[in-house]
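Appendix B: a complete holo record

For completeness, this appendix reproduces one full record from the ligand-bound portion of the collection. The bound molecule is pyridoxal-5'-phosphate. The inputs are the chain sequence and the ligand SMILES; the output is the full three-dimensional arrangement of the complex, encoded as structure tokens. No fields have been trimmed.
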Amino acid sequence: MGGHTINKIENGMESTMPDLSAMIPPQLLSTLPFEGKSKDAVLDILASFKAHDVPWKSGRMFGFTYDPGEDAMDVAYDGYMRFLTENGLDWTVFPSMHKLETDLVAIARELLRGDKDVVGSCTSGGTESILCAVKTARDYCRAHKPHITRPEIVLPETAHPAFHKACSYFGVTPVLTGYDPDTFRADADAIRNAITENTILIVASAPGYAQGVIDPIRAVGAIALERGVLFHVDACVGGFHLSFMRRMGHDLPDFDFSVPGVTSMSADLHKYAYAPKNISCVLYKNRDLRFFQYFANRRTTCYAIINSAVLSSKSGGPYAGAWAILNYLGESGYRRVIEKVQSATKKFMDGVNAIDGLRVLGNPEMCMFSFVSDRYNVFEIADRMREKKFYVQPQFTHGVTPANLHISMDWASADHVDGALQALRETVNELDSSTDSINLADIRTHVRELVAQLGPDAETALREMAGISDGGLPGKLALINSVMDALPDEMAEYILTNYMNQTFA
Ligand SMILES: Cc1ncc(COP(=O)(O)O)c(C=O)c1O
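The structure of the chain with pyridoxal-5'-phosphate bound, as generated:
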């Protein structure tokens, strides 16, 4: 790449990288005050911390939050606050926690068409549900397939990173399989071929987060039965939304316990059931399997523990918040939400496809999708959308999937599709006339050269090139994202970890 472009990029970023300490008034970075502050002062200061957050209440945020609208949110919050202090550590002390958890699991089981044998637990989110499913499969196989000493899970590359985290935590090797480059669905034949005598679990998603498409669950279920392996369907985002869509008569492939071979599922309440965080469900085909999720210990001077999932002490707030919103909206309420969200999603996807140079990937079934550009740097689109107060989520290049922008719709953002499309059109017009765009191909070449020259020592140069300063929070992300996009996975992970390690106290 020409030195000119790099200089321009580096100079450009210098002025747009505010330092964290400049953004937060110094008195707020202080230590514990000796004299306490008044309630008003405390709450005012807390409110001021949000000054630089993306304003999720605006409905202009297409990811990260799931906003059911003010009235439903109020009910969920009230329910949440009423159970904030109740502790799920011991439901013999708080039988209310047993009631809440069994109700939530029963509702999820019914929606996901589990039979009477299907059981489950609530967890703090999709990641904990997935950690539990992998740990359960590992320990089930330790008991039933003791020949397995090097456990593996077969994992489509489109599956959520939480599975990689589970592998890393629990000493399991992920065996990655590909996907169709047009539909972005996991390749069932590749899953079959990747199964070995060490396989403890195979995985598919309904849908995968990135492109929002449902994997071929029936085909993978048949493989699980044929090969006698456990099969987890990750329906963290889709579990509730897709089930309601199915009940409303939408034509969807089967993705739940109705599919023979499915042995466990995850479904997050804090996503498209619109519950406040942190709450998800993990469900199992039967109690014999769930047995291996539990952890009991009475080998210390401490009280005995019997934990269903990873957390021990846990607030009842998320459980009650979820129970409140499910019962407040009821099935008819969710149907109303879905009708609005699905029609807004279609309008958004059609609008994106109508913009020259932008294209939606695959054929997403629910309310999440991603789009690419063969003309513009998508990371710059994200930054410019943010300047226009719309938040869209960048996703990196992976294999045959180019860098793209992800959209998750919810009840609140469904009202902002026209505005977002208008902002997108303005953004591409601006980029058409921009003379200092960040050229992804140039960045890629330059990054490759640096990595080839310096190997692991390239970190400092790469951080400089990306404009990453120690302890600072970036204002604009296009350059950082462009550099990260070009890096080999391991180096990107290392740099991000180092950056995080330096940024937090
Ligand atoms: C398909 C899928 N699985 C798992 C997760 C992890 O969920 P959480 O962020 O609640 O841990 C996500 C998060 O978006 C997801 O989309």
